[in-house]
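Hi,

I'm pasting everything inline rather than attaching a file, because the server keeps stripping attachments. The sequence lines come first, and each chain or strand is labelled.
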Amino acid sequence: MTQQAEAVPDIRIRALTKRYGDVVAVDEIDLDIAPGEFFTMLGPSGSGKTTTLRMIAGFEVPTEGTIELAGDDVSRLPPYDRPVNTVFQDYALFPHMTVRHNVEYGLRVKKVRKAARAERADEALAMVQLEGYGDRKPAQLSGGQRQRVALARAIVNRPKVLLLDEPLGALDLKLRQEMQIELKRIQQEVGITFVYVTHDQEEALTMSDRIAVFNSGRIEQVGPPAAVYEHPRSEFIAGFVGVSNVIERDGRRYTVRPEKIQLLADGFEPDAGTRVEEGIVRDVQYVGAVTRYHVTLDRGGELQALTQNLEETSGEVLAMKGRRVRLAWRREQEAVIVENKEEMG
Ligand code: ADP
Ligand code: MG
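And the predicted assembly:
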């Protein structure tokens, strides 16, 4: 087995399994995460994301399987002997310590000298745009600022890998979206491998280099955001990472994303590369910038089409309810669904 140094992944997981009694929380997963990647584990609640992360961190011992960090088997090492740090949703800052002391804490444990500690803490605080906040106490910060402190604390000792478990889950939508951009920027600046857990598909799609979609303790698909979104391999993924728009034809199942579907104008004849389905608009949702049409197809089933409101008024789009329409999309916009688990590999 010859392997180049740069081909060694930061994290290599093989046949990783965790059982709690009869519950299989994580079911034989395999995963390679490259150095510097922003890698996201996406899936519904209870699908095994946190358990996987805790095994990588060392807080849980695998029932079976192995975890390597940069080529070293760490499966049985305690958390403090692994080159990883974890950021949790409840960021657990020490309330009696100043922000700077919170950030320095890990360095103090490692007996880093005082001057070097202060310098690196201030550097980490600058990285999360909190310079000047070092002397405050956590109670004097907003939720978003506290989360930044937690992040500074996690990157101050330059771990190889940072594990983040729904770190933005406690923030409101607007702040969460700002922090998504921030986190991505920080990750690119420090060059640390991020393993990010979320149940929020939009969060996964905006931030990640690659996404692993979890379902019932297994990984159903791994790939870049666009690949997972545009070519979901299962009906579960089609529905979880977007809207489940599934149609059957010639004994196969396909999915097509709502924004790829157009409503054809009367009399317009599409060319040969276009699929056309007829149906009745069952419902219309006007969402400001876009409109969502729920269309019951003549041959059974239902599709959603999403169109931009470029010229249309809300009155015009809402009047479509109950009308007969033709839906159209390019054939190459369809993705085949592979329901057979063996085929999925
Ligand atoms: P997620 O983070 O995707 O929501 P978890 O990894 O927390 O999922 O949980 C996966 C499954 O394992 C769930 O069914 C959960 O109830 C179960 N589980 C997690 N931790 C424990 C535990 N300590 N004891 C028993 N069951 C657990
Ligand atoms: Mg979890």
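Residues 31 and 85 are 19 Å apart (CA to CA).

If the labels don't parse on your end, tell me and I'll reformat.
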